[in-house]
């Protein structure tokens, strides 16, 4: 087979959609998709969502890419590229999550700061039994920070690492997590758009490679009820105009060494905590993970080297100084999630929000914070709808589409429990 191109975008449901195209498209090029894809739900229900134009003839949107963004793929004789979406007038599509992230980066660059991002993903490995029912992957010797065949008897993670390395993904870590069969995948820091492009493609690659081994690698927030949840931790910092880390005040990090930039960012993320959840923990399953005492980012709180707070101020200083936001999960579109976190941080700095006191409790039995996220998707969607300042910053059109789809999702999932709720999402997330 002659070399072909796989042109893709990550949609409102965090699903990677695309087309295989002939080799003649390997260059600065474009292709078209139906705009009403942004009205399609997990169950393939086509809805008249804001901006999807289902009742206006279901017109095209255009995916455009540059030659320099085309990459080698894990598919044989196939290259892959992520593009940006445009409307029929040639303007950036307001619903495009990648466009929302580019706007967030641009808003920070107006302040002379360029966001750097590192993302940690967690996932569970599932396999089908003889009846086709999904069961946890059997890793009887799995332990937290486990490596080798006891954690991964099929060694599918070795293959993920091998292919990722061949394709130039900068892996920082793959390890078994606290609950078996849960794994963590972390890529190194990079410019925000590049970092999210990498995590979207890495996630797609990992799922497709795992499938070759008969494994459904699910990044759902909580696919196994009796086990811990899976998050998508968003670490970020900023490069200033001199090339230095703008969060750094010296060799040491942590709360005692925060500058005004760090305090403003944390204040913004605390101020918009409830509204943020509707964007970055956006499924009914998210709220099985997002609970008090679960290390999930439920509470409106922050601290130092403390895994049971939402906003963690790294103890590392110098070039490694960073902030870590722990609420998001991978059912969120990574572009939208990072855009939302960066915009909330910017709003805190620009609007002078008050920074609440640092959490002193352990997060299990004792918590200073009294306000958390909503306890379900219905409440989180309402909180997002009410946070008009955050919505405007992220993109009013994108958020309106998101709110509509999530209000429908509340109704679609309200009678689903157990495996039925899991299976509504598991093959897509």
How would you describe this protein?
This protein has 429 residues and is an alpha+beta fold. It has two domains: 4-93, Roll (Ubiquitin-like (UB roll)), CATH 3.10.20; 104-425, Creatine Kinase, Chain A, domain 2, CATH 3.30.590.10. Helix content is 31%, strand content 20%. The chain has eleven helices and 17 strands. The protein has helices at residues 97-109, 156-167, 192-212, 260-271, 273-280, 286-289, 334-351, 377-386, 388-394, 396-413, 418-425; strands spanning 4-10, 16-21, 29-34, 60-65, 71-72, 78-82, 84-86, 114-128, 134-136, 171-176, 182-187, 190-191, 216-218, 232-239, 302-303, 311-313, 323-325. The strands form three sheets. Strands 8, 9, 10, 11, 12, 13, 14, 15, 16 and 17 form a ten-stranded mixed beta sheet that branches. The chain has a four-stranded mixed beta sheet with strand order 2-1-6-5. α2 packs across α3 (192-212) and α9 packs across α10.
Question: Features of this protein?
Answer:
429 residues, alpha+beta, Ubiquitin-like (UB roll), Creatine Kinase, Chain A, domain 2, ten-stranded mixed beta sheet, four-stranded mixed beta sheet, 11 helices, 20% strand, globular
């Amino acid at each position: 087979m002659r070399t072909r191109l796989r042109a893709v975008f990550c949609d409102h449901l965090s699903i990677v959609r695309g087309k295989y195209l002939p080799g003649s498209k390997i260059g600065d090029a474009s292709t078209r998709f139906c705009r009403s894809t942004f009205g399609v739900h997990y169950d393939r229900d086509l809805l008249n969502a804001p901006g999807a134009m289902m009742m206006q003839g279901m017109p095209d949107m255009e995916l455009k890419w540059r030659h320099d963004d085309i990459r080698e793929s894990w598919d044989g004789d196939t290259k892959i590229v992520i593009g940006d979406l445009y409307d029929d007038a040639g303007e950036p599509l307001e619903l495009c999550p990648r466009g929302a992230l580019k706007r967030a980066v641009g808003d920070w660059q107006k302040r002379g700061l360029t966001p750097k991002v590192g993302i940690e993903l967690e996932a569970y490995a599932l396999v089908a039994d003889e009846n086709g029912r999904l069961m946890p992957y059997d890793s009887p010797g799995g332990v937290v920070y486990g490596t080798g065949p006891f954690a991964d008897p099929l060694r599918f993670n070795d293959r993920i690492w091998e292919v990722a390395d061949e394709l130039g993904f900068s892996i920082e870590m793959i390890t078994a997590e606290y609950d078996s069969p849960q794994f963590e995948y972390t890529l190194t820091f990079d410019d925000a758009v590049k970092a999210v492009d990498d995590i979207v493609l890495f996630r797609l690659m990992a799922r497709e490679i795992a499938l070759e081994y008969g494994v459904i690698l699910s990044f759902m927030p909580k696919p196994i009820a009796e086990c811990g949840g899976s998050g998508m931790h968003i670490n970020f910092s900023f490069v200033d105009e001199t090339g230095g880390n703008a969060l750094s005040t010296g060799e040491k990090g942590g709360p005692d060494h925060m500058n005004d930039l760090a305090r403003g960012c944390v204040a913004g993320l605390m101020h918009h905590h409830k509204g943020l959840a509707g964007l970055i923990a956006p499924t009914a399953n998210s709220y099985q993970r997002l609970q008090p005492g679960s290390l999930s980012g439920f509470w409106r709180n922050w601290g130092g080297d403390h895994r049971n707070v939402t906003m963690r101020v790294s103890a590392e200083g110098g070039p490694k100084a960073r902030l870590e936001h722990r609420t998001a999960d991978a059912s969120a579109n990574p572009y939208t999630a990072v855009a939302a976190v960066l915009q909330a941080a910017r709003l805190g700095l620009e609007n002078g929000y008050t920074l609440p006191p640092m959490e002193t409790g352990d997060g299990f039995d004792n918590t200073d914070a009294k306000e958390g996220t909503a306890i379900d998707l219905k409440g989180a969607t309402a909180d997002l709808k009410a946070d008009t300042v955050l919505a405007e910053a992220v993109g009013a059109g994108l958020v309106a589409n998101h709110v509509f789809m999530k209000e429908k999702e509340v109704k679609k999932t309200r009678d689903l429990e157990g495996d039925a709720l899991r299976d509504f999402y598991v093959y897509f997330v």
